[in-house]
Amino acid sequence: MSEIPRQTRVLIIGGGPAGSLLALLLHQQGVESVILELRTREHVLERVRAGVIEHGSAEIIRAAGLAGRMDSEGFVHEGVQVAHGEKMIRIDFEGLTGKHVTIYGQTELQRDLYDALDTACIPLIDEAEGVRVEGIESDAPVVSFERGGTTSQIQCDFIAGCDGAHGVSNDFIPPGLQRTFERMYPFCWVGLLSETRPISDELIYARHERGFALCSMRNESRSRYYVQGPADTTLDDWPDDRFWSELAARLPTATSASLVTGPSIEKIVTPLRSWVSEPLRHGRLFLAGDTAHVVPPTGAKGLNLAISDVVYLSEALAGFYRNGSSTGLDGYSDHALARVWKAVRFSWWMTNMLHVFPGMSDDFERRLQTTELDYLFGSENAQRAMAENYVGLPL
Ligand code: RFL
Ligand code: PHB
Fold first, then answer.
1. Residue range of the domain that includes 279
2. For 63-72, 73-82, 357-366, which range has the lowest pLDDT when averaged over its residues?
């Protein structure tokens, strides 16, 4: 990034999937924007995160002209497996809903987004530190930041806060005007990436008395696995050998027999929480993606919500520039939150059903949890409800 513009229409804070896709969608509707990203490009492109793209998200990516690699290198999954102890069933997405999901790493999508930003000459200013805003309640806000020891300012019409769960945009809304909703779960996930053949052609979500496990993948030779760990666990507690044996112990015996293990090439510990901040707007500031809401990864919804938020927001902003109407902008928060809460509900439901809650001494609750799984295993209607949510509710 050589020259820093002094002015733009939409100033986007955060160059993750939400910020990058928003910039592209705006560009395609003739609206100029600038992205400020705290990290280096290399750092953003190295982060290992999501893997499941909903049916509708894939269509959006396609319509934005970004699907070349996703369509050739991603994998269409027409179902997932759910295991409970030694039992396992398939949730048949295609048969139950006529839809599917695509397995394509967020890392790859982020690369496609950055390539498209470069092709469209959309300014992405990386290593932008200390972002702060003035005049959010005016119609000409100013955003300041430091880069390489120099302070710069960009004047804009609107600010889009897309800076993720650890960003600052949320802090720009006065506390009295914001309401937050939170649920911390009393466990975390330990995730491991390895250059090994995936255990199965489809994802496996498993509930076992030892805890939750998830088998996912990136391609035919790269696997992504997760196991539930204690809330206070650290990576030191999870040498590869322990991870693999714990994973194997939580899968049905016939399935774990096909587990191929190998050295980890990346390992993470991630806490699980549900968190929503309302409203998604203050004056000229709009929030989208993880900065506005966080869901536990169990339902594979975070990236997909970031995508639906920015679709709504780009349409509202483009509408404003097209016909001067603020109707779309005024409705953005309610519109986006209605979809967000459905994903919060689904992720909470999946998390509750599949994890072992420490200290769940209450026999009544334990029975209800296993009954939830029994019902899912035995009812096509329950499976359809899960499939409908997993492939993604309509935008
Ligand atoms: P991001 O991706 O965090 O990007 C925010 C960007 O903002 C930058 N930033 C700042 N920039 C400027 N100034 C500041 N002060 C800034 N502070 C931060 C950051 O550097 C970053 O580049 O948020 P965004 O764009 O809202 O996207 C959200 C998704 O990344 C997230 O929801 C998903 O990764 C969640 N997620 C999953 N979502 C799915 O839809 N499907 C999945 O299968 C799925 N699996 C997962 C997941 C998240 C996981 N972790 C690690 C939490 C699996 C895991 C393990
Ligand atoms: C992943 O592949 O990283 C992944 C898949 C499904 C989830 C969460 C993460 O629910």
1. 10-76+105-181+273-350
2. 357-366
